[in-house]
Design brief:
It is a single chain. With 338 residues, the chain is an alpha/beta fold. It has a single domain, classed as Peroxisomal Thiolase, Chain A, domain 1 (3-Layer(aba) Sandwich), CATH 3.40.47. The protein is built from eleven helices and 13 strands. The strands form four sheets. It has a five-stranded mixed β-sheet with strand order 1-7-6-4-5, sandwiched between helices. Strands 8-13-12-11 form a four-stranded mixed β-sheet, with helices on both faces. The chain is globular, with a radius of gyration of 19 Å. It starts with a strand and ends in a 12-residue tail after the last strand.
């Protein structure tokens, strides 16, 4: 029997600079009520000058390794839209900072679905016996790519990192990960994008506009697509697993907008109190949002050993995906933010 991936550690990190809605209202035409009503977000955290995405990733990884009570892994998979540099990948840098030089390390670029893509890739490394243990990280610093003067986007995103440790195990044990459902539709790439900086723009011969260097999103269309694609992915995943939605104990969705999470639960017929998340406190942390929410739920005692946990996400690409996870019996560690 081939081994399966088993989650054995989780950790997260939020940079020390908290930015409230009131703080943003000092420089943007907005209010705390406007932001909270439309997004469900009251606060977020921004990385400080001199900090890189790899630094956030390392801090989250250290906590996950401590939770798993292991010193090393055989591979590092990092999901990020905001790498330290366009080249090389950031995962090898993270591995080196963790003292893991020599292990396999690579980035996954699937925007806000990135963590689920990375989790699936890591599970594949374990299933093929390429690795015995894999560190999977989602880390993003969207404060570096969002136009600070754009009210629609600037109020949504925050920086942060989350990580899990996977080990080789058996399908029936607590912590087992899978199956997965992943999908994409590149015809809608313009709904969530940064137009400048890539080969398409550089080889076009046209000078980019200033706004082309920033992240942009078509909010209403993204909202609609997110519900449709995540709901379809979840239904397909549950059919494959032979489960009904009522057998799901907890759902951890990508924390893009609280209204999306509430609507998704309603469409799926899942009681809203089974949703786990902390978007109000941390905002949309992109590829880091699911592992951050998992760690927060673990530390608040909202996840019990044996719980059937549904993970689902939607992001630029377009990309989407879902996965099932049987919650393990994890060692508790104190939350450290800075």
């Amino acid at each position: 029997m081939r081994p399966v991936a088993v989650l054995c550690g989780v950790g997260s990190y939020l940079p020390p600079t908290a930015v409230s809605n009131d703080d943003l209202s000092q420089r943007l035409d907005t209010t705390d009520e406007w932001i909270l009503t439309r997004t469900g977000i009251a606060n977020r955290f921004f990385a400080s000058r001199g900090t890189a995405t790899s630094d956030l990733a390392v801090s989250a990884a250290e906590r996950a390794l401590k939770c798993a009570e292991v010193d090393g892994v055989d591979a590092v998979v990092l999901a990020t839209t905001t790498p330290d540099r366009p080249c090389p990948a950031t995962a090898p840098v993270v591995a080196a900072k963790l003292g893991l030089s020599g292990v396999a390390a690579f980035d996954v670029g699937a925007v806000c679905t990135g963590f689920l893509y990375a989790l699936s890739a890591a599970a594949g490394l374990i299933a093929t016996e390429t690795a015995e243990r894999v560190l999977v990280i989602g880390a993003d610093t969207y404060s570096t790519i969002v136009d600070p003067s754009n009210r629609s986007d600037a109020v949504i995103f925050g920086d942060g990192a989350g990580a899990v440790v996977l080990r080789a195990g058996t399908p029936g044990e607590p912590g087992a990960v899978g199956p997965f459902d992943l999908g994409s539709d590149g015809d809608h790439r313009d709904l969530i994008t940064i137009r400048a900086g890539g080969s398409e723009q550089r080889l076009s011969g046209a000078e980019p506009r200033p706004e082309d260097h920033y992240f942009s999103m078509s909010g209403k269309k993204v909202f609609q697509q997110a519900i449709v694609q995540m709901a379809g992915s979840v239904r397909g995943l549950l059919r494959r697993a032979g489960l009904e939605i009522g057998q799901v104990d907890r759902m951890v969705g990508h924390q893009a907008n609280q209204r999306i999470l509430t609507r998704l639960a309603d469409v799926l017929g899942l009681p809203e109190d089974r949703n786990i998340g902390n978007i109000r406190e941390v905002g949309n942390t992109a590829g880091a949002s699911i592992p951050i929410a998992l760690d927060d739920g673990h530390r608040r005692g909202l996840l019990s050993t044996g719980d059937q946990v549904l993970l689902t996400a939607f992001g630029g690409g377009l990309t989407w995906g879902s996965a099932l996870l049987t919650w393990p019996d994890l060692h508790h560690t104190d939350r450290i933010r800075s």
